[in-house]
Structures are given as C-alpha cells and as structure tokens.
Amino acid sequence: MLSSTIAATYREWVQVKEACAVSTSSMKVLCISFLLAASTAFAQKYPEGIWQGYEGEWKHVSQQLIALAEATPAEKFAWRPAAGVRSTSEVYMHIAAANFYLLSVTGPKMPADLKEDAEKAITSKADVISWLKRSLEAVREAHLAEKPQDLQRKVHIADRDATVDGMYLRILVHANEHMGQLVAYARMTGVAPPWAKN
Hints:
Layout: H1 2-21, H2 25-42, H3 53-71, H4 88-105, H5 118-121, H6 125-145, H7 148-151, E1 154-157, E2 160-163, H8 164-188
Antiparallel strand pairs: 1-2
C-alpha cells in the first residue's frame, strides 16, 4: 500500500514537473511549491527499528510500549472499556507475563518473583512499567544470545511442537497485537500516543 502511494505521488510529481516546463511564471511558482512538498514527503523519516529484522522490530515495539505506558496518567491504569475486559494495567501486565512465559518455553526460567496473579495484583503505574521494561529487556537479551542454529531447536508448547524462532515470532506478534489494543485504550481515555502527530 505504501509503495503504491509513493508510486502515485511520483507519477504526479513527474506530471507536474513536465507541466512546469511550459507554464506561466505564476504557475511555475505553484509548481515549485508542489515539487518542494513532494520532495519532503520522500525524505520522511521512518520509525527507528522497522524493516531491520527481529532486533529492530523488537526495539520499535518496546520503545512504543514504554513510551505509551509512561505517557498514560496513573489514574488511567485502572480504566477498562467494559466490565470483564482487561484494564490498562492488566493489558501491560499480560504482555509482561506472556513475554516471560513464552520466553521460558525456549529455556530461560520464569522470574521467581512473578506471581501467578500478577496481571490483577500489580496495578500501580510504576510497578507495571518496571515489570514491562524487565520483560522487554529479558526478551531482547535472550534473543541476542541465540545462535542461528539455536533458533531452529524444537520446543513444545500447549498441544504442539514449535521452534525457538517461532516462539520469538509469537512474542513479537503478541506484543504488537496488544500495542494496538493499548493505543485504542489510550485514545478512548484522551491520551495521544507520544509518537502520533495528534
């Protein structure tokens, strides 16, 4: 979709450039303005980490999760969209607990101080962010330590066999899935994601 948008903008740019060559002076000013705006669009800076493999994508989602959690006022951590649905703090703690659990399938042990009821018991902004950061860093460090052949090692989870690489992919997808949920929660409570323009 992005490539088709860029291609369409480029085609427009070429058409305007050709029109500018034969236009009046006032039209040339308009054409030059358009060309400058189009070149700015092509020079757009994309978020750090995207298109840079697992480590880059993990860095990107980790930075966004932490930035959004830090931007959310403490009183909004108890907010939930409806009865029986996870609150903001519960979603963050669900991510943290899932990071540790899915990572444990690949070898590292679950933290001894992460209790089974952590998702509901840990609710303060400071504690939630501390656990979130700890889990994100644990995944980052563990993945960096894996050798290419280790990623193909077979593991078992629930009712199926998987690979270590597949587990890391699941961790990444899961974090991004809940990032989308948390952006919706933030918007519903009047919090704009720090990376959004408005």
